[in-house]
Design a protein that fits this description.
The structure holds 2 protein chains of 2 kinds. Chain A is an alpha+beta fold. Chain A is built from 9 helices and 10 strands. By secondary structure, chain B is mainly beta. Classes of the chains: A alpha+beta, B mainly beta.
């Protein structure tokens, strides 16, 4: 008697929680069936949900999973356990990670679902839709998610099913992270543009439990090489030979200054100038002439020559760096991987 | 009055220039050997020692000069008579190649008869300079004119003017500079009845922070 009351209490609690959850999801394609389930009209719920599944072929995975769970629960409460198990098996194959809300569904439903999940050994592949990897050094990474502990073989195959490369074989629990470096078993680039990523699940007895296959479209991407840096513009180079201006300035400056010294007494009005001023004028004139020789036109300007050579050396260095980078880019081939839609293959169809 | 006005104008110009190009004090100084000839009623010659210094603040410059030595009649032996000369100038550089300055200039020397002549001028000077041998060899020309003068002679002061020209060679990688120049002062008194000329060859070495 006590267990009977407990069962009723659990059912009422589940109904209440399901009502709250269903209120938020009443707009989905399975809303009518869920509402019927919440009203404890399990026959009506099963009928409505089956009808909805027949119509809503394009529903989202999460909505379909939820619909299957309610359908399985409805079948269970209708006393059709085999049908419920079949529905739950469909749910596990659709999404092995799906777990019923234990506040919404009573233990009778969740325990049946858990048994089905463990026995089904379903897997799904979670891969990025588009990836570009550097072959050999990069990796195309994907996840294998399982409904329960099982043994899997993860392989890449040609479209005709011939093996291309084995990636993993062994046991796995909840999930498994697998990487592919973009090369075949011989370490070469794939010779085809499409391969299949296949995960085969095996029962502990070694019997094949299921296969999930994901087509991968491959495209070889060659990275553009860099253009060579432009050589320095003529305006960046300093003159390597002296011009005539410094020499002329020295010569003319010396002449003018020497002349000024010589005529300075006349300028200030003195009529008996000192002859020693001519010594000064001569020295200044000599300095001007010496300046002309030192700065004669066409004289090599070593500092400018060195600066120009350093400029050319920097350019040659940058060209060499670009060449090395281009060699590396030519060797660094990328592979673009596009993941298609996964398909599940039943063992009997293999 | 004219000297005072010019001094005020120059000080105002210098003050404005200093505010515009404010920077630290830049000192300079040097010593020179000056071969001097004084020609007036007598002709006296001699080699005297000179010292000069300057302090620049931005475009403002204060320059001081002092000369002291013995001069005597040309070709005569003996110790000679004292020659003392001093100058103080307050200047401003409106451009890097131009300096305008004003200040007192005093000179005292003794004639062969024992008469001591004392000259005091207020001078206005203009000096242009520029590099002509690379950046190390700079030439300069300076002209001045006395704005007023006080002389202890009976003749009335008429006018006085002078000039200096030469070159300064800056030694590479050192603040040292060598100077060679020729300068001359010429004063006219009594409407030309008395002429006084002092000219000299200057050979010096100095330190410059510029």
């Amino acid at each position: 008697m006590k267990s009977h009351f407990a069962w009723i209490a659990l059912l009422v609690c589940g109904w209440t929680a399901a009502a709250a959850q269903g209120a938020a999801q009443a707009a989905g394609p399975f809303a009518d069936g869920i509402r019927a389930y919440q009203n404890l009209d399990f026959d009506q719920a099963a009928a409505l949900l089956r009808r909805a599944f027949a119509r809503a072929t394009s529903a989202a995975v999460s909505e379909r999973a939820q619909g299957l769970l309610y359908l399985g629960a409805a079948d269970l409460f209708r006393g059709r356990r085999d049908s419920a198990v079949a529905v739950f098996r469909r749910l596990v194959q659709l999404d092995p990670r799906y777990r019923p809300d234990r506040l919404v569904f009573p233990p009778e439903v969740t325990s049946v679902f858990d048994n089905v999940r463990v026995e089904s050994r379903a897997v799904v592949l979670v891969a990025p839709p588009d990836t570009e990897i550097s072959t050999g050094t990069g990796a195309f990474t994907f996840w294998v998610v399982a409904s329960a502990f099982q043994t899997v073989e993860v392989t890449l195959r040609y479209q005709d099913g011939a093996p291309f490369r084995a990636l993993y074989a062994g046991p796995m629990g909840d999930s498994l992270r697998v990487q592919w470096d973009g090369l075949d078993a011989a370490g070469q680039m794939p010779p085809v543009s499409r391969i299949l990523l296949r995960v085969a699940s095996r029962a502990p007895t070694g019997e094949l439990a299921g296969i999930v296959q994901l087509p991968l479209d491959l495209r070889v991407v060659h990275i553009d090489t860099l253009p060579w840096p432009k050589p320095p513009a003529d305006s960046q180079f300093l003159p390597e030979r002296s011009g005539s201006r410094p020499a002329l300035r020295a010569l003319l400056g010396g002449v003018v200054l020497a002349g000024t010294v010589a005529v300075l007494p006349s300028v200030v009005g003195s009529d008996h100038p000192n002859g020693s001023r001519l010594v000064v004028a001569g020295a200044v004139g000599f300095a001007g002439a010496l300046g002309y020789v030192l700065h004669r036109p066409g004289r090599p300007l070593t500092a400018n020559i060195a600066a120009n050579e350093a400029l050319r050396a920097r350019w040659r260095q940058s060209v060499a760096a670009v060449k090395a980078e281009n060699v590396q880019r030519r060797d660094d081939v990328h592979l673009a991987v596009h993941a298609g839609e996964p398909t599940a293959i039943k063992p009997s169809a293999r | 009055m004219r000297v005072a006005s010019l001094g005020c104008a120059l000080a105002a110009l210098a003050a404005g220039a200093t505010r515009g190009g404010a920077q630290g004090l830049v000192p300079a100084g040097g010593i020179s050997i000056v071969s001097t000839r004084v020609r007036g009623t007598n002709e006296l010659t001699g080699t005297v020692l000179a010292g000069q210094g300057a302090l620049a603040l931005g475009r403002l410059e204060l320059a001081l000069g002092y000369v002291q030595g013995k001069i005597g009649p040309a070709g005569a032996s003996g110790a000679g008579q004292d020659l003392v000369e001093g100058v103080a100038l307050l200047g401003v550089r409106p451009a890097s190649w131009l300096r305008l300055a004003v200040g007192p200039h005093a000179r005292s020397y003794t004639l062969t008869g024992g008469t001591q002549l004392r000259w005091a001028f207020w001078e206005l000077r203009a000096r242009v300079s520029g590099a002509f041998v690379g950046s190390a060899g700079r030439g300069y020309v300076e002209l001045w004119r006395a704005l007023s003068a006080s002389v202890n002679v009976p003749e009335r002061f008429d006018h006085a003017q002078g000039g200096e020209a030469g070159m300064v060679v800056h030694l590479a990688r050192a603040p040292l500079e060598l100077r060679l120049g020729y300068r001359i002062d010429h004063a006219v008194l009594g409407g030309g009845t008395r002429l006084e000329t002092v000219d000299a060859v200057v050979v010096g070495v100095g330190l410059s922070g510029r």
